[in-house]
Amino acid sequence: MPYLEGQLQDFKEAYGFQSPFAGFYYCYSSPEQQWAFYARYIQSLWDAPTGQTYYDLAEIVRGKEVFVLTTNVDMQFERVFPQNSICSYQGNVGYFQCSQPCHDRIYPNENLIREMCENMLGMRIPSELLPRCRECGRIMVPWVRDDTFLEGRDWKDGVIRYESFLKQCLTKEKAKSVLLLELGVGEMTPGIIKLPFWEMAYKNKGAFYVCMNQEDSSSPEHLKNKSLYIDGDLSKTLRDLKQIMKGKAGTGK
Ligand SMILES: [Zn+2]
């Protein structure tokens, strides 16, 4: 989760959080405190500059048919790739949903988040700024995967877009050149990206799987001739790759 360093310093000191993730899932004693953390954290994501890695990636795949399946919720992909080419499987912190959820709708939250941050009282927000569901009055929560995550119309639309893209790519004519590029996927939820990618690479003749990760990743034996593993700093790997491709384009190779 990239965020602006320093913006959560007071929370870090008061609660001992080692990461924003810890603050996000902490059990606060009041919704005003909970929303103070959410607001500050989400605002830091709105304000964070777009990572160069995202631009490099976009440059590398320029001119190709591309789809992004991501478990990131930090709105970075949305700034660089077209919205209709992204499936945000675990949600997006830039939206609210009802905490029940009592209805199928998500709401952009930037304005209210900024208002909360401007009016913060220490590490709490005023009660009147708690985001309330307009249908049932319950407190809203960020649209991010947890036990009440709304897999509603917007979520399903993303999944359908992804599935139809795959279907179209893996037809016989095009299946010779499908690259399944896995970038920095951790071990927490292998069922969303990693395992389906392994299966698709194995089952489809022309598909090839590339895994880039900070550390050594597990590599299945049956993908031996259909996969490539690149360990190390992802941002450096993509930057180098972009340079190499640029060089090749320049020499016409
Ligand atoms: Zn509701």
Number of helices: 9
Overall number of strands? 8
CATH class of the domain at 52-85 and 172-251: Alpha Beta
Q: What is the CATH third-level topology name of the domain at 52-85 and 172-251?
A: Rossmann fold
**Stretches with pLDDT under 50, minimum 5 residues:** none
Q: Taking all residues together, what is the mean pLDDT? A: 92
Q: CATH homologous superfamily of the domain at 52-85 and 172-251, by name?
A: TPP-binding domain
Q: Structural class of the helices, strands and pairings?
A: alpha/beta
Largest sheet geometry: 3 strands, antiparallel
Span between termini: 38 Å
The percentage helix is 25-40%
Question: What CATH architecture of the domain at 52-85 and 172-251 would you give?
Answer: 3-Layer(aba) Sandwich
Shape: globular
Bound molecules: zinc ion
User: How are strands sequenced across the largest beta sheet?
Assistant: 4-3-5
Give the helices and strands as they follow along the chain.
HHHHEHEEEHEHEHEEH
Rg is 20 Å
Which strand-content bin applies to the residues? 15-25%
